[in-house]
């Protein structure tokens, strides 16, 4: 006769142990990226550098020349913070709503990513943390290009 209660207890113990190992070995999702990046202050620094990078890129600046820079800055900080599991709530429009009609192509999307990487470099963000941030942001790619 099979003792199902014992099996369930063992499965629960395995799940708890696995969760503990993943959490404390750095294999959890984006939950620690916010702390790793240095919080909202560092995200703000990255976004400020990103805005500067955009102004020096004629191809990308064309997408932003009619934008309210202060609103863009505020919403970009919220969005990055939210995507990397920080305490921020993103209160802006959806990525689809923001980018519809812009017809951002693959090359310009990639150039914008390069500008964001430049901004993270300027802010002194470690490459391992940059990769985690980019991974979180990559989930919005399909909501941005060719809209």
Please give a structural write-up:
This protein starts with a helix and ends in a 9-residue tail after the last helix. The chain has helices at residues 4-24, 33-37, 39-55, 58-64, 69-83, 95-99, 106-122, 127-138. With 147 residues, the chain is mainly alpha-helical.
Reported for the largest beta sheet, the result is: none
Strand fraction band? under 5%
Outline type = globular
Give the ordered list of helices and strands: HHHHHHHH
Instruction: Output the radius of gyration.
Output: 20 Å
Low-pLDDT residue spans: 16-30
User: What is the CA-CA span between the terminal residues?
Assistant: 61 Å
Structural class: mainly alpha
Number of strands: 0
Comma- or semicolon-separated keywords:
147 residues; mainly alpha; globular
């Amino acid at each position: 006769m099979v003792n199902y209660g014992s099996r369930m207890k063992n499965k629960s113990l395995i799940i708890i142990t696995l969760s503990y190992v993943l959490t404390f070995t750095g294999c959890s999702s984006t939950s620690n990226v916010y702390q790793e990046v240095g919080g909202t202050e560092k995200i703000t620094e990255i976004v400020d550098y990103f805005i500067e990078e955009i102004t020096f890129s004629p191809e990308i600046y064309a997408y932003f020349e009619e934008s309210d820079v202060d609103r863009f800055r505020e919403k970009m900080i919220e969005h990055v913070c939210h995507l990397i599991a920080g305490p921020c709530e993103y209160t802006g429009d959806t990525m689809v709503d923001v980018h519809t009609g812009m017809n951002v192509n693959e090359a310009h999307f990639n150039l914008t990513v390069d500008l964001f990487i430049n901004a993270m470099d300027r802010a002194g963000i470690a490459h391992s943390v940059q990769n985690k941030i980019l991974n979180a942001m990559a989930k919005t790619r399909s909501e941005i290009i060719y809209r």
